[in-house]
Design a protein that fits this description.
By secondary structure, this protein is α+β, with helices and mostly antiparallel strands. The protein contains 6 helices and 8 strands; from the N terminus they run E-E-H-E-E-E-H-H-E-E-E-H-H-H.
């Protein structure tokens, strides 16, 4: 069950299940976690393919962890749960805070998701995402990825990602998970925060 938000991101006090929220194009809450290794790279997850993953399938995501916030759940607690589910790594919230976890921003995304399970072949995904960064040295060989949801994880140089996003005609935002309308703002603020942890 998800909390229903209004178009300004305020909790309405109502809840609905995932299908209701998506089919009705209802505003709800999500989380993203950008993980840096502290040496100039971020971890990216490669999202699974449709129909197992319909939201941004098959792309290399800016974020190593992403998910929906359950009704009444603090977004930071969602990160703990999603990190365990998607990467197979178990951290307490205190451990993440000790690694520099902090919330960078809240962004508003509104985009069409292709999904044959919905009337009209898809739905409008309307979500307020709480975007966090943290510094964690992950061993890629020991991660236990969520089957079919996360197909791979890689280290990607932050400076190369900046270059990718500046190249005209490369569809870089699509390649690295396009979340309109605030994708450029999202990338700029999150990568700057990751660099801050890198140099701290």
């Amino acid at each position: 069950m998800f909390d229903i938000l209004d178009q300004d991101g305020q909790n309405t006090g109502q809840i609905a299940n995932k299908h209701q929220v998506h089919s009705g194009g209802i505003w709800h809450t999500g989380v993203h976690l950008c993980i840096t290794d502290g040496a100039g790279h971020i971890y990216q997850q490669r999202r699974g393919s449709a129909p197992d993953v319909c939201i941004l399938p098959g792309v290399w995501d800016l974020f190593a962890v992403a998910g929906h916030v359950a009704a009444g759940e603090d977004p930071a607690i969602t990160l703990v749960r999603e990190t365990s589910e998607e990467l197979g790594r178990h951290y307490t919230l205190g451990e993440l805070h000790s690694r520099g976890l902090y919330k960078v921003s809240i962004t508003q995304s509104n985009y069409w998701v292709v999904d044959s399970g919905f009337p009209g072949g898809g739905y409008w995904h309307r979500v307020f995402d709480h975007n966090f960064v943290v510094r964690l040295p992950l061993n890629l060989d020991t991660l236990q990825l969520e089957p079919k949801k996360v197909t791979a994880v890689r280290l990607y140089p932050i400076q190369q990602l900046y270059l990718d996003l500046k190249q005209p005609g490369t569809k870089a935002y699509t390649q690295h998970a396009h979340r309109p309308p605030e994708d450029s703002k999202l990338y700029e603020t999150v990568l700057s925060a990751a660099e801050g942890l890198t140099h701290s």
